[in-house]
Request: fold
Amino acid sequence: MPKEEHIASLDIGSTSIRMVVGQRVVGEKAGVHIVGAVEYPSEGIAKGMITSLEDAVSSISGCLEQIERSTGVPVRRVWVGISGGHILSEESRGVIGVSRTDGKIREEDVMRAIDASRTVVTPPNYEILHVLPRAFTVDGQAGIKDPVGMTGIRLEVDAQIVQGLTLQIKNLTKAIFRTGLEIEDLVYSPLATALAVTTPRQKELGVAVANIGGTTTSIAVFEEGDVIHTAVIPIGSQHITSDIAIGLRTSIEVAERIKIEHGTAVPSKLVKNEKIDLASLGAEESEMVEKKYIARIIEARVEEICSRIEKELRKISRSGMLPAGVVFTGSGAELSGLIDLAKRKLRLPAALGYPIGVQSAIPRAHDLSFSTAVGLVLWGYEVRNRETSPSWGKAFEGVATVGKAAGSIKKMIKSFLP
Reply:
Protein backbone atom coordinates (compact mmCIF):
# COMPACT_ATOMS: atom_id res chain seq x y z
CA MET A 1 0.00 0.00 0.00
CA PRO A 2 1.44 3.42 -0.88
CA LYS A 3 2.19 5.75 2.00
CA GLU A 4 0.16 8.51 0.36
CA GLU A 5 -2.76 8.48 -1.99
CA HIS A 6 -5.57 10.84 -2.86
CA ILE A 7 -9.26 10.70 -1.99
CA ALA A 8 -11.67 12.93 -3.92
CA SER A 9 -15.23 13.90 -3.06
CA LEU A 10 -18.10 15.45 -5.00
CA ASP A 11 -20.86 17.40 -3.24
CA ILE A 12 -23.60 18.30 -5.72
CA GLY A 13 -25.82 21.09 -4.41
CA SER A 14 -28.62 23.13 -5.90
CA THR A 15 -26.58 26.34 -5.98
CA SER A 16 -22.98 25.09 -6.01
CA ILE A 17 -20.95 21.99 -6.76
CA ARG A 18 -17.96 21.42 -4.51
CA MET A 19 -15.03 19.08 -4.91
CA VAL A 20 -12.35 18.34 -2.35
CA VAL A 21 -9.16 16.30 -2.77
CA GLY A 22 -7.52 14.91 0.34
CA GLN A 23 -4.17 13.22 0.64
CA ARG A 24 -4.30 10.00 2.61
CA VAL A 25 -1.23 9.56 4.79
CA VAL A 26 -0.53 6.38 6.74
CA GLY A 27 2.20 5.70 9.23
CA GLU A 28 3.33 7.92 12.07
CA LYS A 29 1.38 10.94 10.83
CA ALA A 30 -1.71 9.07 9.70
CA GLY A 31 -4.63 11.24 8.70
CA VAL A 32 -6.07 13.34 5.91
CA HIS A 33 -4.46 16.45 4.48
CA ILE A 34 -6.70 18.50 2.20
CA VAL A 35 -4.74 19.60 -0.87
CA GLY A 36 -7.57 21.10 -2.93
CA ALA A 37 -11.08 22.50 -2.53
CA VAL A 38 -13.07 24.24 -5.26
CA GLU A 39 -16.60 25.53 -5.76
CA TYR A 40 -18.44 25.89 -9.06
CA PRO A 41 -21.96 27.24 -9.81
CA SER A 42 -24.42 24.41 -10.39
CA GLU A 43 -27.10 24.28 -13.05
CA GLY A 44 -29.68 21.62 -13.81
CA ILE A 45 -30.05 20.71 -10.13
CA ALA A 46 -32.91 21.64 -7.80
CA LYS A 47 -33.41 20.50 -4.21
CA GLY A 48 -30.80 17.81 -4.61
CA MET A 49 -32.38 16.34 -7.74
CA ILE A 50 -31.26 16.44 -11.39
CA THR A 51 -33.63 18.56 -13.48
CA SER A 52 -31.44 18.90 -16.60
CA LEU A 53 -28.90 16.18 -17.32
CA GLU A 54 -26.91 18.23 -19.84
CA ASP A 55 -26.60 21.25 -17.53
CA ALA A 56 -25.63 19.04 -14.60
CA VAL A 57 -22.92 17.30 -16.64
CA SER A 58 -21.56 20.69 -17.74
CA SER A 59 -21.42 21.97 -14.15
CA ILE A 60 -19.72 18.84 -12.81
CA SER A 61 -17.20 18.96 -15.67
CA GLY A 62 -16.42 22.59 -14.88
CA CYS A 63 -15.82 21.78 -11.23
CA LEU A 64 -13.64 18.80 -12.16
CA GLU A 65 -11.53 20.93 -14.45
CA GLN A 66 -10.97 23.49 -11.69
CA ILE A 67 -9.93 20.96 -9.05
CA GLU A 68 -7.48 19.25 -11.39
CA ARG A 69 -6.00 22.59 -12.39
CA SER A 70 -5.63 23.79 -8.79
CA THR A 71 -4.13 20.56 -7.39
CA GLY A 72 -2.32 19.08 -10.37
CA VAL A 73 -3.86 15.76 -9.37
CA PRO A 74 -5.83 13.81 -11.99
CA VAL A 75 -9.18 12.89 -10.42
CA ARG A 76 -10.69 9.64 -11.66
CA ARG A 77 -12.78 8.32 -8.76
CA VAL A 78 -14.97 10.24 -6.32
CA TRP A 79 -17.07 9.68 -3.22
CA VAL A 80 -20.42 11.25 -4.02
CA GLY A 81 -22.93 12.79 -1.64
CA ILE A 82 -26.62 12.24 -2.32
CA SER A 83 -29.49 14.08 -0.68
CA GLY A 84 -32.84 15.66 -1.47
CA GLY A 85 -36.49 15.35 -0.60
CA HIS A 86 -36.73 11.95 -2.31
CA ILE A 87 -34.63 10.27 0.41
CA LEU A 88 -36.59 8.10 2.85
CA SER A 89 -35.41 6.80 6.21
CA GLU A 90 -37.13 4.15 8.31
CA GLU A 91 -36.40 1.63 11.03
CA SER A 92 -36.09 -2.10 10.44
CA ARG A 93 -35.12 -5.25 12.32
CA GLY A 94 -33.13 -8.26 11.15
CA VAL A 95 -33.23 -11.60 12.96
CA ILE A 96 -31.08 -14.69 12.34
CA GLY A 97 -30.13 -17.91 14.11
CA VAL A 98 -26.47 -18.45 14.97
CA SER A 99 -25.50 -21.47 12.92
CA ARG A 100 -22.47 -22.78 14.80
CA THR A 101 -22.85 -25.48 17.42
CA ASP A 102 -20.69 -23.58 19.91
CA GLY A 103 -23.00 -20.54 19.56
CA LYS A 104 -20.08 -18.15 19.06
CA ILE A 105 -21.09 -15.07 17.07
CA ARG A 106 -18.69 -14.12 14.28
CA GLU A 107 -18.43 -11.24 11.85
CA GLU A 108 -20.31 -13.15 9.16
CA ASP A 109 -23.25 -13.65 11.55
CA VAL A 110 -23.39 -9.90 12.12
CA MET A 111 -23.42 -9.26 8.38
CA ARG A 112 -26.17 -11.85 7.87
CA ALA A 113 -28.29 -10.05 10.49
CA ILE A 114 -27.68 -6.70 8.77
CA ASP A 115 -28.60 -8.23 5.41
CA ALA A 116 -31.78 -9.63 6.99
CA SER A 117 -32.79 -6.12 8.04
CA ARG A 118 -32.76 -5.13 4.36
CA THR A 119 -35.94 -7.16 3.82
CA VAL A 120 -37.99 -4.08 4.79
CA VAL A 121 -40.73 -3.39 2.28
CA THR A 122 -39.19 -0.94 -0.18
CA PRO A 123 -41.57 1.50 -1.91
CA PRO A 124 -41.87 1.09 -5.69
CA ASN A 125 -38.97 2.60 -7.64
CA TYR A 126 -36.79 3.01 -4.54
CA GLU A 127 -33.38 1.50 -3.79
CA ILE A 128 -31.63 0.98 -0.45
CA LEU A 129 -28.60 3.25 -0.07
CA HIS A 130 -27.51 2.46 3.47
CA VAL A 131 -28.27 0.02 6.25
CA LEU A 132 -27.18 1.69 9.51
CA PRO A 133 -27.03 -0.79 12.42
CA ARG A 134 -27.98 0.85 15.71
CA ALA A 135 -27.92 -1.92 18.32
CA PHE A 136 -27.89 -5.70 18.56
CA THR A 137 -29.84 -8.11 20.73
CA VAL A 138 -28.43 -11.53 21.68
CA ASP A 139 -30.92 -14.03 23.12
CA GLY A 140 -33.06 -11.21 24.48
CA GLN A 141 -30.19 -9.11 25.85
CA ALA A 142 -30.64 -5.73 24.17
CA GLY A 143 -28.40 -2.71 23.72
CA ILE A 144 -25.30 -4.58 22.53
CA LYS A 145 -23.00 -2.54 20.29
CA ASP A 146 -20.63 -5.27 19.13
CA PRO A 147 -21.84 -8.89 19.47
CA VAL A 148 -18.78 -10.47 17.81
CA GLY A 149 -17.25 -13.05 20.13
CA MET A 150 -20.35 -13.40 22.30
CA THR A 151 -22.28 -16.65 22.63
CA GLY A 152 -25.93 -16.95 21.70
CA ILE A 153 -28.54 -18.66 19.56
CA ARG A 154 -30.61 -15.73 18.29
CA LEU A 155 -29.08 -12.52 16.95
CA GLU A 156 -31.17 -9.44 16.18
CA VAL A 157 -30.23 -6.01 14.86
CA ASP A 158 -32.15 -2.73 14.91
CA ALA A 159 -31.18 -0.73 11.85
CA GLN A 160 -31.98 2.51 10.08
CA ILE A 161 -32.68 2.00 6.37
CA VAL A 162 -31.93 4.91 4.03
CA GLN A 163 -33.55 4.68 0.60
CA GLY A 164 -33.43 6.84 -2.51
CA LEU A 165 -35.63 7.17 -5.57
CA THR A 166 -34.21 4.95 -8.31
CA LEU A 167 -34.85 7.56 -11.00
CA GLN A 168 -32.85 10.21 -9.16
CA ILE A 169 -30.01 7.81 -8.36
CA LYS A 170 -29.91 6.84 -12.02
CA ASN A 171 -29.84 10.43 -13.23
CA LEU A 172 -27.17 11.42 -10.71
CA THR A 173 -24.89 8.53 -11.60
CA LYS A 174 -25.37 9.11 -15.34
CA ALA A 175 -24.39 12.76 -14.98
CA ILE A 176 -21.23 11.82 -13.10
CA PHE A 177 -20.21 8.97 -15.41
CA ARG A 178 -20.61 11.20 -18.45
CA THR A 179 -17.84 13.45 -17.11
CA GLY A 180 -15.45 10.49 -17.15
CA LEU A 181 -15.48 10.03 -13.37
CA GLU A 182 -16.04 6.74 -11.61
CA ILE A 183 -18.03 6.53 -8.39
CA GLU A 184 -16.43 4.98 -5.31
CA ASP A 185 -19.80 4.94 -3.57
CA LEU A 186 -22.90 7.03 -2.95
CA VAL A 187 -23.12 8.39 0.59
CA TYR A 188 -26.16 10.02 2.17
CA SER A 189 -24.89 13.59 2.61
CA PRO A 190 -26.10 14.25 6.20
CA LEU A 191 -24.04 11.28 7.42
CA ALA A 192 -20.89 12.58 5.74
CA THR A 193 -21.56 16.08 7.07
CA ALA A 194 -21.91 14.79 10.62
CA LEU A 195 -18.63 12.91 10.29
CA ALA A 196 -16.86 16.17 9.48
CA VAL A 197 -18.37 18.49 12.10
CA THR A 198 -19.09 16.41 15.21
CA THR A 199 -17.02 14.40 17.67
CA PRO A 200 -17.73 10.85 18.90
CA ARG A 201 -18.50 12.37 22.32
CA GLN A 202 -21.22 14.60 20.87
CA LYS A 203 -22.78 11.66 19.03
CA GLU A 204 -22.73 9.62 22.21
CA LEU A 205 -24.46 12.32 24.28
CA GLY A 206 -27.01 13.22 21.62
CA VAL A 207 -26.63 15.80 18.85
CA ALA A 208 -28.45 17.03 15.76
CA VAL A 209 -26.58 18.24 12.69
CA ALA A 210 -28.44 20.74 10.51
CA ASN A 211 -26.88 21.51 7.12
CA ILE A 212 -28.50 24.63 5.67
CA GLY A 213 -27.95 24.55 1.91
CA GLY A 214 -29.30 26.68 -0.89
CA THR A 215 -32.77 25.13 -1.21
CA THR A 216 -32.89 22.44 1.48
CA THR A 217 -31.86 21.86 5.08
CA SER A 218 -30.79 18.32 5.90
CA ILE A 219 -30.87 16.95 9.43
CA ALA A 220 -29.21 13.96 11.08
CA VAL A 221 -29.79 13.12 14.75
CA PHE A 222 -27.37 10.94 16.72
CA GLU A 223 -27.60 9.35 20.14
CA GLU A 224 -25.37 6.78 21.84
CA GLY A 225 -23.16 6.96 18.76
CA ASP A 226 -25.90 5.87 16.37
CA VAL A 227 -28.07 7.59 13.77
CA ILE A 228 -31.61 7.69 15.10
CA HIS A 229 -33.27 10.01 12.59
CA THR A 230 -32.63 11.82 9.31
CA ALA A 231 -34.77 14.26 7.35
CA VAL A 232 -34.62 16.84 4.55
CA ILE A 233 -36.52 20.11 4.93
CA PRO A 234 -37.35 21.89 1.63
CA ILE A 235 -36.19 25.30 2.89
CA GLY A 236 -32.73 26.80 2.53
CA SER A 237 -30.76 30.02 2.36
CA GLN A 238 -32.10 30.90 -1.09
CA HIS A 239 -35.57 31.25 0.43
CA ILE A 240 -34.17 33.96 2.72
CA THR A 241 -32.78 35.77 -0.32
CA SER A 242 -36.12 35.47 -2.11
CA ASP A 243 -37.96 36.86 0.94
CA ILE A 244 -35.67 39.90 0.98
CA ALA A 245 -36.13 40.43 -2.75
CA ILE A 246 -39.95 40.33 -2.40
CA GLY A 247 -40.01 42.42 0.77
CA LEU A 248 -37.81 45.16 -0.66
CA ARG A 249 -39.03 44.80 -4.26
CA THR A 250 -35.48 44.45 -5.51
CA SER A 251 -33.50 41.99 -7.61
CA ILE A 252 -32.23 38.62 -6.39
CA GLU A 253 -28.64 39.80 -6.88
CA VAL A 254 -29.15 42.84 -4.66
CA ALA A 255 -31.06 40.77 -2.10
CA GLU A 256 -28.18 38.29 -1.89
CA ARG A 257 -25.69 41.09 -1.22
CA ILE A 258 -28.00 42.54 1.44
CA LYS A 259 -28.21 39.15 3.16
CA ILE A 260 -24.47 38.57 3.12
CA GLU A 261 -23.29 42.10 3.98
CA HIS A 262 -26.04 43.38 6.28
CA GLY A 263 -28.28 40.45 7.14
CA THR A 264 -28.95 39.23 10.67
CA ALA A 265 -31.61 37.02 12.24
CA VAL A 266 -31.78 39.09 15.46
CA PRO A 267 -33.42 42.51 14.90
CA SER A 268 -33.17 43.46 18.59
CA LYS A 269 -29.39 43.80 18.32
CA LEU A 270 -29.59 46.52 15.67
CA VAL A 271 -29.56 50.25 16.27
CA LYS A 272 -32.94 51.90 15.75
CA ASN A 273 -33.41 53.80 12.50
CA GLU A 274 -30.10 52.56 11.05
CA LYS A 275 -30.53 52.46 7.27
CA ILE A 276 -28.73 51.35 4.14
CA ASP A 277 -28.94 52.65 0.57
CA LEU A 278 -29.86 49.90 -1.90
CA ALA A 279 -28.03 51.77 -4.66
CA SER A 280 -24.73 51.08 -2.84
CA LEU A 281 -25.49 47.36 -3.22
CA GLY A 282 -26.24 47.39 -6.92
CA ALA A 283 -29.84 48.61 -7.12
CA GLU A 284 -30.70 50.85 -10.07
CA GLU A 285 -32.23 53.56 -7.92
CA SER A 286 -31.37 54.99 -4.53
CA GLU A 287 -33.66 53.78 -1.73
CA MET A 288 -33.07 53.93 2.02
CA VAL A 289 -34.20 50.84 3.95
CA GLU A 290 -34.08 50.20 7.69
CA LYS A 291 -31.80 47.35 8.71
CA LYS A 292 -34.33 46.28 11.31
CA TYR A 293 -36.95 45.77 8.61
CA ILE A 294 -34.53 43.53 6.70
CA ALA A 295 -33.71 41.65 9.90
CA ARG A 296 -37.39 40.99 10.61
CA ILE A 297 -37.77 39.46 7.14
CA ILE A 298 -34.77 37.19 7.77
CA GLU A 299 -35.91 36.35 11.30
CA ALA A 300 -39.28 35.07 10.08
CA ARG A 301 -37.72 32.60 7.63
CA VAL A 302 -35.03 31.40 10.08
CA GLU A 303 -37.74 30.85 12.69
CA GLU A 304 -39.56 28.69 10.16
CA ILE A 305 -36.43 26.59 9.60
CA CYS A 306 -36.00 26.18 13.36
CA SER A 307 -39.68 25.26 13.73
CA ARG A 308 -39.28 22.54 11.11
CA ILE A 309 -36.19 21.20 12.91
CA GLU A 310 -38.17 21.25 16.16
CA LYS A 311 -40.95 19.29 14.45
CA GLU A 312 -38.47 16.59 13.38
CA LEU A 313 -37.11 16.37 16.92
CA ARG A 314 -40.64 15.98 18.31
CA LYS A 315 -41.20 13.02 15.98
CA ILE A 316 -38.49 11.10 17.85
CA SER A 317 -39.25 12.58 21.29
CA ARG A 318 -36.01 14.55 21.43
CA SER A 319 -37.39 18.09 21.52
CA GLY A 320 -35.22 20.03 23.99
CA MET A 321 -33.49 16.79 24.98
CA LEU A 322 -30.18 16.63 23.12
CA PRO A 323 -27.32 17.41 25.54
CA ALA A 324 -24.88 18.27 22.74
CA GLY A 325 -27.52 20.44 21.08
CA VAL A 326 -27.68 21.35 17.41
CA VAL A 327 -24.67 21.90 15.17
CA PHE A 328 -25.40 24.18 12.20
CA THR A 329 -23.28 23.98 9.09
CA GLY A 330 -23.53 24.60 5.35
CA SER A 331 -23.44 27.87 3.41
CA GLY A 332 -26.66 29.10 5.01
CA ALA A 333 -25.22 28.78 8.52
CA GLU A 334 -22.96 31.78 7.89
CA LEU A 335 -25.92 34.09 8.56
CA SER A 336 -25.35 36.46 11.48
CA GLY A 337 -27.57 35.83 14.50
CA LEU A 338 -28.51 32.28 13.49
CA ILE A 339 -27.09 30.65 16.62
CA ASP A 340 -28.75 33.11 19.03
CA LEU A 341 -32.13 32.59 17.39
CA ALA A 342 -31.70 28.80 17.28
CA LYS A 343 -30.88 28.61 20.99
CA ARG A 344 -34.06 30.50 21.80
CA LYS A 345 -36.39 28.63 19.45
CA LEU A 346 -35.03 25.10 19.93
CA ARG A 347 -34.28 25.40 23.66
CA LEU A 348 -30.98 23.61 23.06
CA PRO A 349 -27.29 24.45 22.87
CA ALA A 350 -26.36 25.54 19.36
CA ALA A 351 -23.05 26.07 17.60
CA LEU A 352 -21.52 26.39 14.15
CA GLY A 353 -20.03 23.19 12.75
CA TYR A 354 -16.72 23.77 11.01
CA PRO A 355 -14.91 20.77 9.48
CA ILE A 356 -12.66 19.04 12.02
CA GLY A 357 -10.31 16.08 11.83
CA VAL A 358 -8.43 17.32 8.77
CA GLN A 359 -5.34 19.41 8.22
CA SER A 360 -4.97 21.96 5.47
CA ALA A 361 -3.51 25.34 4.64
CA ILE A 362 -6.45 25.95 2.28
CA PRO A 363 -9.01 28.28 3.92
CA ARG A 364 -11.93 26.67 2.10
CA ALA A 365 -11.19 23.31 3.75
CA HIS A 366 -12.29 24.90 7.04
CA ASP A 367 -15.35 26.66 5.60
CA LEU A 368 -18.91 25.91 6.68
CA SER A 369 -20.02 25.42 3.09
CA PHE A 370 -17.43 22.66 2.53
CA SER A 371 -18.39 20.50 5.52
CA THR A 372 -20.16 17.86 3.40
CA ALA A 373 -17.37 17.64 0.81
CA VAL A 374 -14.76 17.30 3.55
CA GLY A 375 -16.95 14.72 5.30
CA LEU A 376 -17.06 12.63 2.12
CA VAL A 377 -13.26 12.62 2.01
CA LEU A 378 -13.18 11.48 5.65
CA TRP A 379 -15.74 8.81 4.79
CA GLY A 380 -13.51 7.49 2.02
CA TYR A 381 -10.50 7.63 4.34
CA GLU A 382 -12.31 5.58 6.97
CA VAL A 383 -13.51 2.95 4.51
CA ARG A 384 -9.93 2.44 3.32
CA ASN A 385 -8.56 2.35 6.85
CA ARG A 386 -11.25 0.37 8.65
CA GLU A 387 -9.05 -2.67 9.16
CA THR A 388 -5.72 -0.89 9.63
CA SER A 389 -6.82 1.88 12.01
CA PRO A 390 -8.93 0.49 14.89
CA SER A 391 -8.94 3.79 16.81
CA TRP A 392 -10.56 5.66 13.93
CA GLY A 393 -12.94 2.75 13.43
CA LYS A 394 -14.26 3.30 16.95
CA ALA A 395 -14.91 6.97 16.17
CA PHE A 396 -16.80 5.85 13.08
CA GLU A 397 -18.78 3.17 14.92
CA GLY A 398 -22.38 2.85 13.80
CA VAL A 399 -21.63 4.20 10.34
CA ALA A 400 -18.55 2.31 9.14
CA THR A 401 -20.47 -0.89 8.51
CA VAL A 402 -22.49 0.88 5.84
CA GLY A 403 -19.86 0.23 3.18
CA LYS A 404 -20.18 -3.53 3.66
CA ALA A 405 -23.94 -3.58 3.94
CA ALA A 406 -24.46 -1.46 0.84
CA GLY A 407 -21.93 -3.13 -1.40
CA SER A 408 -24.54 -3.91 -4.03
CA ILE A 409 -24.94 -0.23 -4.90
CA LYS A 410 -21.91 -0.32 -7.20
CA LYS A 411 -23.45 -3.07 -9.31
CA MET A 412 -26.64 -1.05 -9.52
CA ILE A 413 -24.73 2.07 -10.62
CA LYS A 414 -22.91 0.17 -13.38
CA SER A 415 -26.24 -1.10 -14.67
CA PHE A 416 -27.35 2.49 -15.25
CA LEU A 417 -24.70 3.10 -17.88
CA PRO A 418 -26.12 3.35 -21.42
Notes: The chain is about 35% helix and 30% strand. The radius of gyration is 22 Å. Residues 88-162 form a domain with the Dna Ligase; domain 1 fold (CATH 3.30.1490.110). Residues 387-418 have pLDDT under 50 and may be disordered.
